[in-house]
Amino acid sequence: MSEVTDLTVIDIKPEQAPVLFSPNGLDAFLEQIKQAVNEVPDLSTDKGRKRIASLAAQISRSKTAIEKPGREYLKRLKAAVKPAEQEIKRFVDECDTLRDATRQPLTEWEAEQERIAAEKAAEEERLRIEAEEKAALEALKKQFDADHEIALLLNEKFDRDVAEAKAEAERQRIAHEEELKRQAAEQAKREADEAAKREIEAAAAREREALLAKELAERERIESEQRAEREKQEALAKAERERIAAEEKAKREKEEAIQRERAAAEAREQARLAEEKRIKDEEARRAADKEHRKTINNKALQDLIAAGVPEECAKLCITEIAKGNITAISINY
Q: How many domains does the chain have?
């Protein structure tokens, strides 16, 4: 077993704190403690086991003798930095307010440009829809005029056909009469009575044939007129259906465009509201964090002052610790 030694009682004065509680400032004490416990007691004996327990207890007492004044020194540092932290916060808040006020005209101008662009897009869409509706109506009118012209031409053709049929019937009648006269003249010499009878019969036949021809021509005329009327009505109905379909299509497309514009406007409004909420939430979070840090720093400053650290020194300590300039020391927020 090595030579038995005891740890010297450690007593740190307040004026020693700045030097000791700096990087590697406690190495001498650590070396002193290591040297004091540099022995290997015999675990097989009661004395040896008690010696190990005694050495461990001495290490704990030495640790407490250094840690306690160190903690008190830290409190004084925290109290010293509080004024600096408050001044920094005041400066930052003033700069944020000044920045927002400086940018306000640009922010308002950007919002106005977005509004103008949205109105321009809506107007262009409205003009496009009106142009499409006008083009559709023009096409429908041209189709209607063309169908009407065809109906008129069909009516004229029917009238010509009827006139030609009448003329042909008249020619046939005249030719037939001449043929009958010729036959009657030839037979008159042979059979006067029979010629007279045949003449009566021929006249009756002519009358029947003329009547039949007239009825046939009338039926054909009526059928032609009815056919032309049907074709005319079908053309008008088709034109009307196409006109209604075009109007409904134009109306539907206009409503769809209005719905798209309304949806786009709602989407822009939702995005704007979401962005406003995000900004407000972020500002609230930053404000809460600042307030929380302020509260913790104020408490640390008060603790340092209460520990005897001068207020200015305590403010400086808090500021430097918050900046991370003090090694191995930080503020838990």
A: 1
